[in-house]
Amino acid sequence: MEGYGVPEIFNTDQGSQFTSPVFTKVLRDNNVQISMDGKGRALDNIFIERFWGSIKSEKIYLKLPSGGLDLYRQVIDYIVFYNSKRRHK
């Protein structure tokens, strides 16, 4: 939060990474209001869920990254492809 400021509200789904005591403590210690979608509410986030499914199946799983920098480059490359060249239904 140092470089970007502290948000007033942090909204997530109820994934274990977001409900963990370590994660929620950071939010509480910084007076950030925690907001979580209801259990089983995948449709609340359907567009980003579809995007992450696409990037994993069309890019990441086809050529596993060799490290963090490689993963970063693959994500950037895919976002450019997704926004400018990929056909959408």
From TrEMBL:
Stored InterPro entries: Integrase_cat-core, RNaseH-like_sf, RNaseH_sf, Transposase_IS3/IS150/IS904
Pfam families tied to this protein: rve_3
Domain called Integrase catalytic: residue spans: 1-89
PANTHER family from the UniProt entry: TRANSPOSASE INSF FOR INSERTION SEQUENCE IS3B-RELATED (PTHR46889), TRANSPOSASE INSO FOR INSERTION SEQUENCE ELEMENT IS911B-RELATED (PTHR46889:SF4)
Name recorded for this polypeptide: Transposase
Organism of provenance: Sphingobacterium bambusae
